[in-house]
Specification:
Number of strands: 10
Number of helices: 8
Order of helices and strands: EHEHEHEHEHEHEHEEEH
CATH superfamily: Aldolase class I
Structural class: alpha/beta
Largest sheet: 8 strands, parallel, barrel
Number of domains: 1
CATH architecture: Alpha-Beta Barrel
């Protein structure tokens, strides 16, 4: 089955629902302007109650390397997702195998930029109205399918378009956020159950790479 990350976790019950229904990873957003921002102290409490094999990923936007490293250690995260305007040089300050770089693809030039990042995977998302993600807008699937690195597809994925996304893009992993929410920051467990069932049926037996990896396997 294609690996799935459920992002924007704020509540323990949402995290447990995602884990129980087959999510490989959870995303915790440490970017204060986001409606899904979580304080490191609260994230740590939730993370301490989750299965060890569930991959915990910290999402950061244009943060200092010192603060990223501090929160990574404090919360016991497994991987980092850089979702802002971070450069390839900035990214080289972290181990590539623990790093995901999010990009919004709009042109051929953006594809060339993606190849410069030394990371475990590129996450393709959409940006809208100055927001760095979680907009509910679909990303550019045509360009996403041409990424040369391992690909995580994000951006407005939900029950109605997930099959189309899998067939047209064939991503290595999925990142789902707004499409399974009651409201920003509060997941709908029934939606999580349904979309995970769809993904399982569509990708069961697929030979896709392992992108989301816990610390103990790194």
């Amino acid at each position: 089955m294609t690996q799935v990350k459920i992002c924007g976790i704020i509540h323990l019950d949402d995290a447990l629902c995602a884990a129980e229904n087959g999510a490989a990873a959870l995303g915790f957003i440490f970017y204060q302007p986001s409606p899904r921002y979580i304080e490191p102290q609260k994230a740590r409490v939730i993370i301490d109650k989750l299965p060890r094999d569930l991959v915990k990923i910290g999402v950061f936007v244009n943060e200092t390397t010192e603060e990223v490293k501090r929160i990574f250690d404090y919360c016991g995260l497994d991987m980092l997702q850089l979702h802002g305007d971070e450069s390839p040089d900035y990214c080289r300050q972290f181990p590539a195998h623990r790093l995901i770089k999010a990009l919004a693809l709009k042109s051929e030039e953006d594809l060339k930029k993606a190849s410069a990042f030394d990371v475990s995977a590129i996450l393709v998302d959409s940006r809208h109205a100055g927001l760095y993600g979680g907009t509910g807008k679909t990303s550019n699937w045509e360009l996403a399918g041409r990424i040369s690195k391992p690909l995580i597809l994000s951006g407005g994925l939900n029950e109605s378009n997930i099959i189309d996304a899998l067939q047209k893009v064939n991503p290595d992993a999925l990142d789902i956020n707004s499409g399974i929410e009651e409201r920003p920051g509060k997941k709908d467990c029934a939606k999580i159950v349904r979309i995970m069932e769809i993904i399982k049926r569509q990708t069961n037996g697929d030979d896709t790479p392992i992108i989301f990896t816990s610390r103990k396997n790194l």
